[in-house]
Specification:
Radius of gyration: 16 Å
Distance between the termini: 24 Å
Helix content: under 10%
Structural class: mainly beta
CATH architecture: Sandwich
CATH topology: Jelly Rolls
Shape: globular
Oligomer: single chain
Number of domains: 1
Order of helices and strands: EEEEEEEEEEEEE
Strand content: over 45%
Largest sheet: 7 strands, antiparallel
CATH class: Mainly Beta
Number of helices: 0
Length: 192
């Protein structure tokens, strides 16, 4: 399967999400490949493969503040980001990076020149790991890790997403090879 997102933005904030219509239970490994077709440097747009404890409402543009149990999972996202000049204090010149977001906290930024690659989010027991594929070393490189509370319900939903702020330039991103391997997938039946 191959699909693309094209963004032409004039609103103060935008988010495009493509949700897998199945609830994931237990351990899982989610992956997607991407290619940045139209992607000006330092454009301020973020792209990610994420998991959330419940799907966002149709038409929602909010990626933060999802509710759940206090010590539970809100969001885990493996990201490929393009920072604008002055957007991040540790990288005032902006640039292109891999990173991850876990419950609203940003992990370290890893510089990249990759215009195509792979993102991954996986869970083993109560441990979440976000990664990107390094084509030179031919291995998955962790960008973040987080452990959840065992008492928290472990069902999650997975999404591919793009988001940014006003004055974002037009971009086109192609995605393919989206896959999820899981202990259990709760998918709607074709009869309903």
């Amino acid at each position: 399967m191959q699909f693309s997102f094209t963004v032409r933005n004039s609103a103060p904030f935008f988010a495009l999400n493509l949700w897998l219509n199945c609830r994931i239970e237990g351990d899982f490994d989610a992956r997607v490949s991407y290619r940045l077709e139209t992607w000006p440097p330092a454009n301020g747009i973020r792209m990610g493969l994420g998991v959330h404890p419940n799907p966002l409402p149709l038409g929602s543009t909010t990626l933060h503040g999802l509710t759940g149990k206090a010590r539970g999972l809100r969001t885990v996202i493996s990201e490929r980001v393009s920072l604008r000049r002055g957007e991040e204090t540790l990288h005032p010149s902006g640039g292109e990076f891999y990173t991850s977001e876990i419950n609203g906290r940003q992990a370290r930024y890893i510089p990249t020149a990759h215009r195509e690659g792979k993102l991954r989010v996986r869970r083993e027991n109560f441990n979440f790991t976000t990664e990107y594929w390094d084509p030179i070393g031919r291995l998955w490189v962790p960008t973040g890790q987080w452990s959840s509370n065992p008492q928290v319900e472990d069902d999650v939903w997975v999404t591919i997403q793009l988001w940014g702020r006003e004055r974002s330039p037009a971009i086109t991103v192609y995605f393919q090879d989206f896959s999820v391997e899981a202990q259990r997938l709760g998918c709607p039946s074709g009869n309903s």
